[in-house]
Design a protein that fits this description.
Elements: E1 10-12, H1 23-27, H2 35-40, H3 45-58, H4 62-73, H5 83-94, H6 98-111, H7 116-123, H8 127-132, E2 138-142, E3 152-158, E4 161-166, H9 169-172, E5 182-187, E6 198-199, E7 210-215, E8 221-227, E9 229-230, E10 233-234, E11 241-252, E12 255-261, E13 271-276, E14 282-287, E15 297-302, E16 313-314, E17 325-330, E18 335-340, E19 350-355, E20 363-364, E21 375-380, E22 387-391, E23 401-407, E24 411-420, E25 431-435, E26 441-446, E27 452-458, E28 462-469, E29 476-482, E30 488-496, H10 509-512, H11 529-544, E31 549-554, H12 562-582, E32 590-594, H13 612-616, E33 621-626
Parallel strand pairs: 24-30, 31-32
Antiparallel strand pairs: 1-11, 2-23, 3-4, 4-5, 5-6, 7-8, 8-11, 9-10, 11-12, 13-14, 14-15, 15-16, 17-18, 18-19, 19-20, 21-22, 22-23, 24-27, 25-26, 25-28, 28-29, 31-33
Helix pairs in contact: 3-4, 4-5, 5-6, 6-7
Domain OmpA-like: 507-627
Subcellular location: Cell outer membrane
Keywords: Cell outer membrane, Cell projection, Cilium, Flagellum, Membrane
Length: 627
């Protein structure tokens, strides 16, 4: 089902071995899935890393792509094409590693100064913050009534129905000849939700893959995408690839017939994802035909009154880049919407728009339509009351799900207080920020003099976080869930830790917490009364930081034999450990060790005359943070 997202829109079943550095070629080695298998085929480490990285990238497995691309750049003897810098930067962005993504994007810009993607990025290097800011007009929700456990995408409108492409037939069919994708429909009676999906039309169904429909205004003509299919089998090129083609069918007496492929289709390149303009005089589509600037471009072709076609025209560098542009949708007002991973985005495929009448700059639709994942195939009806698109973002039902835009008609009010993590005292004037699940800012305010704050966020079923920031403190972060039924969340407590108290491996909590020294009497391993208050502060610190582990190091002065002092200090450490465990700290988080007189903090070693006060300074316990 991912085949319709791939840059050359093809499905390959043929194993190929070549040293050619070709992004598309590597991506289609679909049967070579492991390092070992590719190694047995005789490929070099460089070819293997490219192959696995590109395959993961094309299949939206961006975490895997970052792994293999990083391995690729570790090969010191490799001469890597700069396009891999871009893919690596995009994959890092899709895993929300924005800082490192910018590093590799800057390397790409330096290597390809005239590349459209580099030029677009140079225009606004602060674009991420702008794109993450969510809309206050609408939110997105999963169209759960029709989505399946497989991929569902490419929605379009036909009468009162929503037509879309789905791989759900794979769930029930055991036949190996079953195609991946078929066309399904769901109706929307009045203002109710769309009904359960059913197959669209048997006349348009074949043993090939069908998707991406576009209907004429009178409902009598449909354009759709299908694999190159002839006489009951896939037609393949010399590389074993069955290209995609656009077909046209007409409605006669309630039946779809006269199915014909468009004249500019080819067995050597792909044409896919049709979209008709309002008048039915122009057809927009995606292709990698000759003249394409990148992996795939958006084209337009004139439809003559007699049904014949003009010559396809590339929409040019304002729309198309050296990467993937796909899934065009032309609105009634002449605005083109399309998916791309070549323009500035949040990661993966993002949805963009451009007014073709003005031919102004391309605009990213931003959060919440776009995410760090693949977002594509947006459509809306004439009244703009129904808007749908597909995405593989987390939280969906299948690989790709269809989502719809929902007008925000309410806000959730979140209130609470910022407090010191240790003292629990209120922290005044902290900057409080609300983030959505993708890291976009959805609300911001400053706590008052009593540390109290209130933030409003859109009603949306998702995960949010509230962060507190103030100079001298580490960021405090609180995760929470809201749903459309919740209109108010009260009494949140965002704890913030003083930067000086941050748990750093090797730090002594006596110094971090500014404790009084914990001393022992001469020749004694019993805890003194003045020690308990300070030990309780160590316990409180560890209770608030469940990831912190501590090693207690106990010491003696230089009096008595060295061996006796080691034994005594070990008893002091064990006594201290036992007390902390008795207060509820898990024994796996606290350990002890006696150092005897091996780590004196002053000159009072064996044979040196010192006062009792100086010797006392060595009879101590330290609380060292460890891994």
């Amino acid at each position: 089902m991912i085949l319709l997202l791939l840059p050359v829109f093809a499905l390959s079943q043929k194993k190929t071995k070549t040293a050619e550095d070709n992004f598309n070629h590597y991506g289609y080695m679909v049967n070579m899935s492991t390092y070992e298998e590719l190694s047995k085929q005789g490929l070099t480490d460089e070819e293997i890393c490219k192959n696995l990285g590109n395959t993961a990238y094309l299949n939206a497995k961006y975490d895997e792509a970052t792994y293999w691309f990083s391995k690729l750049f570790e090969l010191n003897d490799s001469s890597i094409d700069a396009d891999y810098f871009y893919r690596y930067a995009q994959a890092l962005k899709s895993t929300k590693n924005y800082r490192e993504s910018e590093i590799w994007m800057n390397k790409f810009k330096k290597a390809n100064t005239n590349d459209v993607r580099a030029l677009n990025h140079s225009k606004d290097e602060n674009y991420l913050k702008e794109l993450m800011a969510p809309s206050t007009e609408f939110t997105v929700e999963n169209l759960s009534s029709i989505n399946s456990k497989e991929s569902d995408f490419a929605p379009s409108f036909y009468q009162n129905r929503l037509i879309f492409s789905t791989a759900r037939d794979l769930e029930t069919s055991k036949r190996t000849s079953t195609p991946y994708l078929n066309l399904y429909q769901a109706t929307k009676p009045n203002e109710e939700n769309y009904s359960t999906a059913t197959p669209f039309d048997k006349e348009l169904k074949s043993m090939a893959n069908e998707s991406s429909t576009s209907f004429s205004k009178d409902g009598k003509t449909v354009y759709f995408t299908r694999n190159n299919f002839n006489k009951g089998s896939f037609s393949r090129d010399k590389k074993g690839i069955s290209r995609l083609k656009i077909y046209r069918a007409t409605l006669n007496s309630g039946l779809w017939g006269n199915i014909e492929e468009l004249p500019f289709n080819s067995d050597s390149y792909s044409v896919a994802h049709p979209s008709l303009n309002e008048e039915g005089t122009k057809l927009y589509f995606s292709s990698d035909m000759p003249g394409t600037l990148g992996a795939s471009d958006i084209f337009v072709v004139e439809i003559h009154p007699d049904g014949s076609f003009g010559t396809p025209e590339n929409l040019g560098p304002k729309v198309n880049t050296e990467s993937r542009e796909s899934f065009p949708f032309i609105s009634d007002s002449g605005i083109l919407y399309f998916a791309s991973d070549g323009h500035q985005g949040l990661g993966g495929l993002d949805i963009f728009s451009i007014d073709l009448k003005k031919y102004d700059n391309v605009a990213n639709l931003g959060n919440p339509i776009n995410s760090p994942y693949d977002d594509f195939s947006l459509v809306f009806d004439e009244e703009r009351t129904n808007c749908f698109f597909a995405s593989n973002r987390p939280g969906g039902i299948g690989g790709d799900d269809i989502y719809y835009l929902k007008t925000i008609d309410c806000m959730v009010t979140i209130s609470g207080i910022a407090t010191d993590k240790d003292s629990e005292k209120a922290i005044p004037n902290a900057m409080m920020t609300a983030y959505d699940g993708f890291g976009g800012i959805i609300g911001e305010t400053i706590a008052n003099g009593d540390g109290e704050f209130e933030i409003q966020i859109p009603c949306q079923e998702s995960q949010y976080s509230i962060a507190g920031n103030l100079v001298g403190y580490e960021e405090g972060l609180l995760l929470l869930f809201t749903s459309p039924n919740e209109k108010e969340i009260k009494n949140l407590k965002v704890e913030m830790e003083e930067s000086s108290k941050k748990a750093v491996v090797g730090a002594d909590l006596v110094k971090v917490l500014k404790l009084d020294p914990i001393y022992f009497d001469l020749n004694s391993s019993y805890l003194r009364e003045d020690a308990f208050e300070n030990l309780d502060k160590v316990v409180a610190y560890m209770q608030k930081r469940p990831d912190v582990k501590v090693e207690i190091g106990s010491h003696t002065d230089s009096r008595e034999e060295d061996s006796y002092n080691l034994w005594l200090s070990d008893r002091r450490a064990k006594t201290t450990v036992s007390y902390i465990i008795s207060k509820g700290i898990d024994e796996t988080r606290i350990s002890g060790k006696g150092y005897g007189e091996t780590q004196l903090i002053n000159r009072c070693a064996n044979g040196i005359i010192c006062s009792d006060r100086d010797h006392q300074l060595n009879r101590r316990s330290e609380f060292i943070i460890v891994d």
